[in-house]
Structures are given as C-alpha cells and as structure tokens.
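Standup notes
- HV: blocked on the assembly model, inputs below
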Amino acid sequence: MVQNARLHSLGILVLCVLSVPAMTTAQQPVLNLMPLPANTQSGTGSLAVDSSFSIAFTGYSEPRLERAGERFLKQLAHQTGLLFALKPSKTGKGTLVIQTDHASKEIQEVGEDESYILDVSTASARLRASTPLGTMHGLQTFLQLVDVSANGFAAPVVTIQDQPRFPWRGLMIDSARHFIPLDVIRRNIDGMEAVKMNVFHWHLSENQGFRVESKKYPKLHELGSDALYYTQDEIRDLVAYARDRGIRVVPEFDMPGHSTAWFVGHPELASGKGPYAIERKWGIFDPAMDPTNEKVYKFLDDLIGEMARVFPDHYFHIGGDEVNGKEWDANPKIQAFMKAHGIKNNEALQAYFSGRVQKLVTKHGKTVIGWDEVLVEGVPKDIVIQSWRGQASLAKAAKQGYRGILSNGYYLDLGWSAARHYAVDPMSGDAANLSPQEKQRILGGESCMWAEYVNPENVDSRIWPRNAAIAERFWSPQEVRDPVSIYARLDFVSSRLEWLGLTHRSVSRHMLQRLAGSASPAEFAALRTLADVLEPVKDYTREQTAPAEPTSATPMNRVVDAVPLESDAGRLFGELVDQFVAASSHDSAAEARLRAQLTAWRDNDAMLQPLAQRSFLVQEVAGRSQDLAALGSAGLAALDTIAKGQPAADSWKAQQLASIDAAKKPKAQLLLIPAPAVQKLIEAAAAGGGCGSSKP
Amino acid sequence: MVQNARLHSLGILVLCVLSVPAMTTAQQPVLNLMPLPANTQSGTGSLAVDSSFSIAFTGYSEPRLERAGERFLKQLAHQTGLLFALKPSKTGKGTLVIQTDHASKEIQEVGEDESYILDVSTASARLRASTPLGTMHGLQTFLQLVDVSANGFAAPVVTIQDQPRFPWRGLMIDSARHFIPLDVIRRNIDGMEAVKMNVFHWHLSENQGFRVESKKYPKLHELGSDALYYTQDEIRDLVAYARDRGIRVVPEFDMPGHSTAWFVGHPELASGKGPYAIERKWGIFDPAMDPTNEKVYKFLDDLIGEMARVFPDHYFHIGGDEVNGKEWDANPKIQAFMKAHGIKNNEALQAYFSGRVQKLVTKHGKTVIGWDEVLVEGVPKDIVIQSWRGQASLAKAAKQGYRGILSNGYYLDLGWSAARHYAVDPMSGDAANLSPQEKQRILGGESCMWAEYVNPENVDSRIWPRNAAIAERFWSPQEVRDPVSIYARLDFVSSRLEWLGLTHRSVSRHMLQRLAGSASPAEFAALRTLADVLEPVKDYTREQTAPAEPTSATPMNRVVDAVPLESDAGRLFGELVDQFVAASSHDSAAEARLRAQLTAWRDNDAMLQPLAQRSFLVQEVAGRSQDLAALGSAGLAALDTIAKGQPAADSWKAQQLASIDAAKKPKAQLLLIPAPAVQKLIEAAAAGGGCGSSKP
C-alpha cells in the first residue's frame, strides 16, 4: 500500500507495471538478474550501450549519488570494455536519466524506502526512486541487464518495479577467529551491493581475538589481537564505504561468553581466576564475563559508549550465544550472588547480564540485537533476535512481540549448496502460521561466514557465489524459488562478481597451483579434473574428520581449502544422469556425454599419481583420485549393461555398489560428489531396460 | 676477476663452487629457476620449509633490507600457505641466515656488485652478498627454490654462486600512449624483481600524452594528459618502491619528435603553426620541437632541471626517435637558420638539437640515454645508445666508444614467442666480433612494452610471462640458451608471478567472459578451446589488418585483446606432432592424444556457433572456429591415411592443403596456431609410410 502511494506520488501510470511476479508468466523471459525484481514487464528490442552512453542525475542530489554514478560508469566500462565519459553528465540529459526524490536518513534505518522503477526503452532509460537507496539498487539492476548481443552491448527493453521483500538483508563476516583485512571486507561489501544486501554484520570479538582498537581500554586490542585489529579511523572509513553502497554496518561484541581475548588484557572482567591467553583452538570455551561484578558493567558502559560513537548504526549486537556456565559454576562469589538475588540458574544469570547490558546499550542511544539466547523474560520489546536456532525460535519471538532475523539455514561455513540455502525461507515453518502483524516482526535474515576454516585468501570463495542466492531469498518475492533458474543466473552473476575484485573463482586455481608445485600442464589438468568434483565435508564434520586438532595456526593450504564449496561439474553430471535415467527412450547424446566424462575420470588417476608422489598435499587426495577412477569404471560398466537392455546380476550390482560406498565416504575431508549419480546409473542398470536401452 | 676477488674477500672456498654453467653437466638437475644462475652445484636432500622457518640478518643492515626480509617472508608464506613469523629474527639465528657486507650506492649505479652466494644444506641456508642488491637477488632465488615435495615444502640442497651477465637489465613500459595506473606499474616492478631485472624505463611523454606533473610548466600535464598523469609525489613513491627492489627508474621524455602532447599547452615549442591537440591515432606524426628557437632550450633547461630532481637516477632518456622532419621542411625560419649555420639536412639539425639537449642534461648532473638517432658525430662518449635498430647499430656505436643497450628483438608488443625473444642476444651478430673492451660497452638490454594495443587491464598479459625469458637472457651466462628448458620453467615462474598480483593469466578468462556474456558453461568452454589456440597477428600487422583505423578511443574488448600472445596449447600440439612425425616406429599413444585433440577441435564449432549468433564479439571469431574445425577434420584424415601406410593421392593432398592455407590466413587479426602442425601431418600422410604407420 505504501508502495502504491509512492508510485502515485511519482506520477507514474501504475497500470503499466502490473504486478507480474518475475517467474510466473510463461511469456516473460527470465532476465539474468539476481536478485530477481518484484515486478518485471519485458518489452521488445533493446537499448544499445555504446561509447556514447551517458548518465544524468535529476531531482535530489548529494555527493553519495555522484559517487554512485561514477562507480556505476566505471563498472559499466569494465563490464563492456567500452570507453565512455566516466563522469555523470551535467546537462540533465543522458542515455540513462536518474531521478531521486529526496534524501534517505543520515544514519540508514531499518525499513527505509529502497524501491525503484527502471524503464528501459530502445532509445533511453529512466531510473526513478524516492531515495538514494533505491537509486543505487536500480543502478545495480541496470548493470546486470547490460549484456553482449548480436549487435553490440545492450540492455533489454523492460520496465522493472522493484522493492525488497525484507528490510534486513545481511551478511555477517567473522573477522575475529581469522582476521580479515579491510581490502577483503571492502570487496565483499561491493559484492553485497551488487546483490542488494543492506547490512554488513561485523563479528569483531571472540575467544580468538578482539579486533577493534579501543582508546579507552587499549589492552583489549594490544593484548587480545596478535596485532591484527582495525583502527577506529579504518572503521570509520569502512562505515562510510558501506554507507556509500546503501549498507549499514552492525558491530558485534560477543558477551558474556566467546570473550577469552578480552580477558588477556582484562582478566578482572572474567569469572575465572585467569591468567588468560588468546584461544588458539575452535569450539565453545569456559571463560565468561562475571555478571555479578559491578566493575564489568562500568567497563562495558565505557566500551559500549566508545564503540557506539565509532559505529553510527542504530543497532548494536551483543552476541550472547553459547555460554557453557562452567566458570560461573566454579566461582563461589558468583554462586553466592545468585543465591542472594534469587537467581535460580545460569540461564537466569545470563538474563540478568543481558538486561544490564541492554540498558547500557540503550543509554548510549542504540538498540540491542543479539543471538537467540538474549531473548529472556522481561527483555524490552525493541530488541532484535538473530536466530541461529531456526524459524520456530523466530516465530516464538514474533508472537511475544519481538522482531527477529533468521540466520539458521544461512551458515555459509557449513558448505551447503546454493539451492539448499535458497530453499530456506524466513517465513517458512512455524513462521508461516504467524499473523500478518507478527510476520511484520520478521525483518529478514543474514548469511553468516564463521571463520574457523577461512582466511583472507579463500574467504571470498566460501561466501560467493552462494551468498547471491541467499540475497535473492531476502530480496525477491517469496514465490520466486525455482532452484533450476538460480544456477544459470548464479553462473552469470558469479563472473560479474569477480569483475568487482572478488576472487572466489580464481583463488581455487592459485591454491591448487601451490600444492601442485612444478607439475606439468597435464598433471595440473588432472588435479583440476579431480578437484572439480570434490567438496569439503559438510556441516560440523570438518572438525571431526580433521587429521589433527585444528587450531588458528593450522595452514589452510590443502585441497579441502582450495576447492569450492559447491562443485559445478558434480552438479551438472548429476543433472545429466537424471535426464538420462528418466528418459523414456534411449538418449544416445546424453549417453555419449556420460561416457566421455566417465572415461576421463577413469583415466585421470594415472596422470595424477606421479604428481601425488612428489607433493604431500596432492598425496592426500591420491585415494580420492582412485575412488574417482573407480566411479568412472563403475559408471561405464553400468552404461554397458544398460546398452544390453538386460537386468544385471545381483552379484554385479553388489560389487558395483561396494565401490560406490567407498567413494561416498569422506576422505581427506572431501566428498566425491558424483558418487550418488553413478549409483543411480548402477541401479538403473540392475533394474534393466530402464532409461531406454539402446536396443529397441 | 673482480668477482673472484670479492669471493675471496668473503672468505669462501672458491673451489667448492666450481664454475659449472647450470645447463652443461648432465648430472646437474635443472632447477626451476628463472633466470638460471651463473653457477650451480646441486647436492643431495633438501631443507624443510615448515612453520618454524625463520630468517636472520647479520652483517650490514639497513631499513631496505628489513623490508626486503619482510616481503620475502610474506611471499614465502603466500607461496606455501604456511603461517610463520613474518618478521626477521632479532637473535641472529634463523633457518636462512643472510649476511650483507656493506651498503650499495645511495643512488643505484650501473655495474654495482649484484652477486650473491646461496648455500642450502639439509639443516639451514646461508645467503651472502656484498651489497643489498645481491642480497635481494638471492632472496628471490631462494623463493624460487622452495617447492612442494613428498614430505612438505622444501628447498633442494644446492650451492649457487650467481651474478648477472649484464649490468643493465630493463623493462620499458610506455604509459604515454595508454595511461597505466601506478598499481599496475607496481605489480610489474614486483615481477621485475622476481626475475632480477634492475631498470624500469618509464616512457612518459608521447604525441598521445604528457604523463608527469610539472610544477614549472603545469600546462604540460593539465592540457596534455586528459587528466591522466602521475603527480611528483606519486613518482617519488614509485622510485622508492623500485629502489626497495634493487631497480632503477629511468624516465624518458621523448623529443624533439613524439611530442604533440607537449604542444597542446605549449605551441611555442613546436616547429609548426599549431594549434595542437592530443593525438588520438597511432603512428609517426609531423609535430616536432623547433631546434632553432632559443626559447625551446630555456624551456627544456627548466623542465629537465625539474625532472632531474624528481627522478634521482643518473641517466635521463631524451628519446630522439622517428622525427620525420616535415614541420622543419615547412618552416622558413628553420630553413633560414639551417642555411645560416651550415646545417645541411634534418639529420644534422636533429644532431644540433641533441647536442644542445645533451648539454642541458649534463648541466643538471645526468647522463643522456637515447634511441639510436641520438648517436651523431661529435656527441660525447658518455651517452648511452638504446638500439631499436639492432646489434649492428649497437656494435657500430661500441666501436666508436659508445655504450649501448639492445631493445631490437625485445619489443613485447610484436607478439613474438618467448623462444624467439630468448634467442636474441645482445652479443650476437656484429656484436659477436667486437673486442673484449668494445664488448664491455654493451651494457645489456631492455624489453619494451609499447602501448598502442594495451591498457591497464591486459598489459600484464602482454608483458608476462615472456618477459621472464628476456630477463634470463640478460642475467644468465650466454651459453644458457636451451629453448626447451625455458618453457617448463616459464610455466612454473608464470604461476608464481600471478601470486605477486600480476594478472597475466587470469585476465584472459575475465575478458573472454565479457565477450561471452550469458554463455552456458559448455558454450564458454568452446570459446576457451578456440581462444587457447589463437594468437594476435604479429609484428606491425595489427594496424594493417584492423577493421577500422584504431585510435586511443578504440575499445580493447575483442578476442584479439583477450588471448595471450603465445598459445601454450598450440605449442604443445606442435611438439606432439613433431614427436609423432619423427618417431621411427608408430607411436600409438601420441596418435591417440592427437586424435583426441583434433576431434575436440572438429566438434568445437557446433558448440560455439550458437554463442556467436548472440555475441557480436564472438561472431568475429566464428570464421576462426570453422577454420579450427577444418583443421581438426584435415588432421584426422591425415591420421587415417597414415594408419593405412600408403601415400595419399596428390588430389587429396592438394585438397587438404587448401584448408590449411585458409586456416593460415589471419582473420579477425588472429592467427590459428595449430595450422602448420596439421600441415605437417598432411605432408607426412602424403609422403606415406612416414612416422611409422600402424601397420608393420
């Protein structure tokens, strides 16, 4: 409703942008956009983008818009290789005329108008938005529309009326467990802008590091960071950089647990005796702040006050997750306090702590956001819950009147496929049954890049391109959910993201080169063939399957660190097998492609093994290479059997499935992705006559 | 002799590093070093490089060495993925102990001691050098030695005694025709350091741009650069950056020709009437300074004085090439001056100009270097000639007592293969017959990256990896010249160069993605298969074959701009054909590989054509794709014929060779590299029974 009113105020004929959800009308070609817009009306023809291309701003103006315009032009030049003027036109005339109505808030707020309308005709284009936030989103859409065509670079004729489904669309990066330098943060913010995310949640303190300069308590970063921290000036620059891209920066200072690094310089905050050292391992640890110590609140008052000035956002994340309570249990003074104040258990003690901290945050003009655990009885209704537990937890909070965002299902470190993340919806499960008013309390979600197993080198490849699928989940209408469409668009958006400076694709080759050393080109090709169908183990099995207990000093130079979290080659092979097995008549083209792939896998091992003899890092995957060869052989045997059109003997099936079972087991912390697809071929062969034998 | 004295002074037993040229002893494994050292004595075993690795400096110390040590550690960490302390040890103890005797000159001079000795044992390593220059070279050698092994990262046990063959080993980058930003310059300087080049020759002024801020004459850069110039502060930083890597920076201000951009702000310097505009085309143009105008010398006195302070190097390049004399011929005042002063022709007029400018350069404490043309009768003996004309010109100069460096044969923009550049030696041709004293005047050489057809995006790929081969030519002993050895090492060094930030390999995929747009993965693979065997046209044919007259506004987004200048796939195919054709008995493994490759080429076109229909930039190479398919078919037909063991009919041969002739012709400014190799197969087939038919 608000949206329509706004459109009307812009004087636009609303009828011409009929609410056509992007995926529902058969005649509407799916544009290579990610996230897909709310409403798209495709026309005929296209707007040429050549060296005469220009943009002009009309209406409200501010330096941020000028910079956005220059960034847009630079990116468009990069994306086309064309040379055009890299400054917006001053005449009010341009190929793309951009009209912004008025300023957005000085400090970006949750739920500001981010809508825009983009009209592309064969002669020109118009972008209209209420605020610079919408303008910047519209510019990103235009960049995605421009593609090479038979006649040059062009954008298709289209009218897009777009606004986000959720007002809170975030990416969290943990730069505490492994420090992530600012240039890496910046290029990820560029990536967020490209896919219309609007919250950068910065996880800044952990057992393993306190990453922000404190002038008030310098021992925090001096003793708690191994000299790897951000200065306040750097943070201010980063906040400005994000604001320039319509992105809020929400800092997280995790407390009362996850805080060992604080205690290295300030053991007096802790519940245990200390001394404390920066934690080098991963997991949940005992150290926690002492909720019964008034000095802790004085300290936090100072620190939150200081950080509230460094981070202008209205929200302040206090963490609050995973306190195991052991230090509390072991401290007689804390036990005495609990008894004296009628605090029955550790959960109640944490609630007491959260309540005190929440008041401090409020005192400094901010609203608390925290993980599920901060939601305890009596906490004021204005706090925001970030749910790592799931939709049920979120729905429960919403029913109680609390706003929340979903992160369960969006943990990028768990190695899920883009499709699996994409299928998770903040409004599904218990949340689907909320009242409209309660649903409004679900503000959106955040993907989370926890950093046990990422470093500055490979973090991009752990975030992208899958994060673009999550961004679409948060932006596009709920009914946009076709996982097939997403992969074609992801492939396209993924290359464009690399043009922004992200390294998620290129880093894999670099890292494989490191472990291949002076491999011959043929050996290196063999390593890539293997690596292309491997994925790291999923969920929390990485730690369980580790050859030695991993720490922050463990090198990340192994194949498991180098391969992408989702194997394109594995997925495409699986799709081909499905198509072949499901075909009603024999698909000889598909069979030929399967044979070629399976033969390549079968023969790859012979090329790889000499390299494995020379490199300990390749040696680690020598077994996976043999498994892949076995998959190749088994798959070819299955195709042979299918070609005969007779069911295979049970003994044959059992023998083949044994090799599949071996291939399915994780080794070197790596999964061999084609194993289930080859199993399907064997089962089809065993069933006989399935998938259209080549004999009539 | 000097070298031996130095070794002696270091107290080293010279006998243990017998002068064993790296390539001559069969027992000596060729190390993956580029450039190859002067003397290498390999031992048994290796030094482990693990997370305990450290370095320590002893002897002379300076901040530059500390920085070099930190850079070395950072690079080694990057190259291994290991986490070790990134600061040199302060204890004097380390895995690698580095001893430097004394400082090098504050302003690096030609012919300073750059030698070093590197001893690697199974327990530790020692690097010894007279000066930081040698130390830095030795660190680069150590970085190249470290490779992955069966037991971890390691450096082989070896003693290397090394010094350069030539004291002047340069790379020239033209950042005047296309502006090259400083980050690109810096990463190329990193690359130079890695391959032990020591002169960055910066071509800074041209008809198309004057790229340096002048405070004295600001109209030079304000009106002559399209706002694309380096400030003096930036230049000072760059000079410091280069000095930190043992690299001199020699600026070139080209005069009296190649100077249109100067005249935009200062038409009074020119011989014509003006007005002048920044030149947008390529070639040799008429504008030239007026050698008869005293104001010109006053101006140059000021400017050279200003620039002499910005660039501390002892040498100052005044260009001097390619003056066509047309403005001089057309100017009555100049003609009158020549008559009055007995100047017989334009060559003599340029000699007069050069002499005057040479005196100004000398006045400001610098020595002149210039292109061949500056060598005219009576020029003082201390100038240095940079020869674009060749060894004969260089030898002639040496005989007259002039020092010189060779650039003929090292023009990177001509698209020669690494092997072809590598075969060019400054001491070959006429230079081979010089006396020892005359030979000493040949200081080395410079590769030249002229910038008509490069921009910041693809310039790395036009310099590297071929420049590493040229660097070896300048550093390693003359007898090191095996072109086979170079390609294996180039492949290795090329990936390492990308770890420094150079983009010569990765950029090709980025650029192909741009022109492929939303291609499917299979279509994109087809484009890469084609691109992998294409090279841009060679020498000066790029301009002649251009579809329209190229200018500085011509986009560089075509396939010709994206593909590397040397096709690895094409070279490897050629080697395989040579091996197959030369074999005395039928090599069925080679035949199978040839068949697989030829089949892939034959079938690639069907996948590419749909993409060509959708992209005008792929459409341009649709014909090349058809030619490649024809090569595939012809090659397969030749293999079939060879398998029969009977000579083919003449008509067959003629028909096949016709398709080769079509493939050999440049199209879309691209050469199809496998064409000559397929021709060899056809000729072998026509000859019959050659290369071992499969029948006995």
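- HV (later): unblocked. The first strand of chain B starts at residue 39 and ends at 48. Chain B touches chain A through 47 residues (CB under 8 Å).
- Next: hand off to the docking folks.
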